[in-house]
Amino acid sequence: MKPSAELLRSYARLAIQTGVNLQKGQSLIINSPIEGAEFVHYLVEEAYLAGGENIQVEWGDEIVARLRYEKEPMHVLESFPDWRVQKMNEHVENGGAVLSVYAQNPELLKGIDPKRPAAASKAAGEALEKYRSYMMNDRVQWSIVSIPTEGWVKKVFPDLDVEAGVAKLWDEIFKIVRVDGGDPIAAWKEHNETLRKAREVLNKKQYQKLVYKAPGTDLEIELIENHIWHGGSAVAETGAEFNPNIPTEEVFTMPYRDGVNGTVRSTKPLNYHGNLIHNFSLTFKDGKVVDFEAEEGYETLEQLLNTDEGSRFLGEVALVPHTSPVSQSNVIFYNTLFDENASCHLALGEAYPTNVEGGSKMSKDELKAAGVNTSINHEDFMIGSAELDIDGVTKDGKVEPIFRKGNWAIDLG
Ligand code: ZN
Ligand code: ZN
User: Fold this and answer.
1) 210 Cα to the center of ligand 2, angstroms
2) Residue 317 Cα, ligand 2 centroid: separation in angstroms?
3) Residues 99-134: pLDDT tens digits?
4) CA-to-CA dists, residue 68 to 77, 142, 202, 271, 299, angstroms
5) Could you report the per-residue pLDDT of 318-377, keeping only the tens digit for each?
6) Considering every ligand atom, which ligand is closest to the CA of 343?
7) Counting ligands in written order, which one lies closest to the CA of residue 345?
8) Are strands 275-285 and 255-265 parallel, antiparallel or unpaired?
9) Distance 318 CA to ligand 2 centre (A)
10) Is the pTM here over 0.70, yes or no?
11) DSSP-assigned letter for residue 311
């Protein structure tokens, strides 16, 4: 069954009011697959109801995308048109917000040489550096939500027929994003408060490093000096409080670029540009990935790691309790927005400058000098499980348990 109009509208209102928190007179770009048209109609209506102006929708289509990766000559994939860069830069420079409806068939690009999508994403990443910096630094409000699409559903629930699978995925999503017929906006206020408390406890601690132990994992991550833990809502330069991800269950901060040593094993598959990387491990020395293996998607992982220099270093460390609603659903979503919120994770590539004091005012060179990783990639991968223990080591060498068996072990107040 299709979800009721009431639930769809309630979800759309949550995305507009709690997600991007669109302000009166503010413009908005909505990115969405064409399959999301019905939901997008609600989003656009809610955006106008919130007082938004100049609401634009950018439609994507998976079949067209696949054909492009298959057929376009390499020189086209390796370039990115200036007019698109200008359009997107102009939107954020004028204070416009961005809302992305993210849903992708995790196997969309199966069989395509990973060099081709990697080239296209590198070109786009480089061309859109300025645009991306507006999101990475919270200069404007941005948010990501998700809806079921057929190709995605088939991967998540292969034993169900598509219609039943779509209905089931809607159910799971509504539960996870706290849209259940009650007042989701109030539920998110409370949830944001919980995450605020967790990040405040960790901000006070200022651990010098974190030590991870789990099967296949023995890893030390030094945190950057004056790091800031974020989680839940953020405040944009526009002054508006917003939620970059719906759902979100994480608190996260920044590793010191050259301070990661040991081996970490993934616990969930990573969907990278339509290709899956599964059961992989990475070995770090002084921050850099010096060795890696993967049972599935080795070449895709190699492409990811070789995108640029920063792709071999970490940019994010995030804590998510194993009891999170996403984890409790026991579904592997093959979609980072969900899977990352089921599990402690790390990210290869770019760090969020807002995770270090003064970071959003630093130039690229200053960030580098301070030990902040920069890259055109930012790829979360999941390492949490019911077997993960994490200790925090204080500046004077005291070892304190942060996570035991996948859940919080320090007092969060
Ligand atoms: Zn994260
Ligand atoms: Zn991330």
Assistant:
1) 18
2) 8
3) 999 998 988 988 999 889 999 999 999 999 999 999
4) 8, 27, 45, 19, 21
5) 999 998 989 889 898 988 899 889 999 999 999 999 999 999 889 989 999 999 999 999
6) 1
7) 1
8) antiparallel
9) 8
10) yes
11) G
